[in-house]
Structures are given as C-alpha cells and as structure tokens.
Amino acid sequence: MGTKKKDQLKTEGEFLFGKKNYLIMIAGVVVILIGFALMLGGGSDDPTVFNEEIYNFQRIRLAPTVVLIGLAIEVYAIMANPGQEKK
Questions:
Q1: Are 66 and 34 in contact (CB under 8 A)?
Q2: Domain boundaries along the sequence of the chain
C-alpha cells in the first residue's frame, strides 16, 4: 500500500501532455488565428451600400479551410502520444 501512495504523489506533478503536444497545439492555434484574420474585412461603412468584396475567394473558401486545418492540427496534438518515439 505504501508504494501506491508514492506513485500517486509522483504523478500529481506531471503535465497532461508532453512538450511536443503543447508545441503542436500552439501551432494549431496560430493557424486558426491566421484563418480568422483572413476572414476580416469586406464590409461597407455605409449600411445602405452593398460591397461585393465580401464574397471573394479569400473569405468564402480559403479562410474557412485554414480554420478547419487548424482544428485538425489541434485534434492531432491531443491524440499524439508523447511517449512514443520513432526508431
């Protein structure tokens, strides 16, 4: 029973993910932020005037794709096993 308590104390100070996971998560957040930055703009200052620029390729296709890629990176970062190394 004494070794069980030592094992519990040993695991309490550990992080949930490894350094590799956190670096991949940061990269995913950066990609998501880039996607949202690509969505910015295209509006009109005058609400009675319609601006066609809101429907360009960057805002309709590219930006959502970049955000989805960022989310996929986040899923990979969560699922990656930090203890498993390639030989």
A1: yes
A2: 16-79
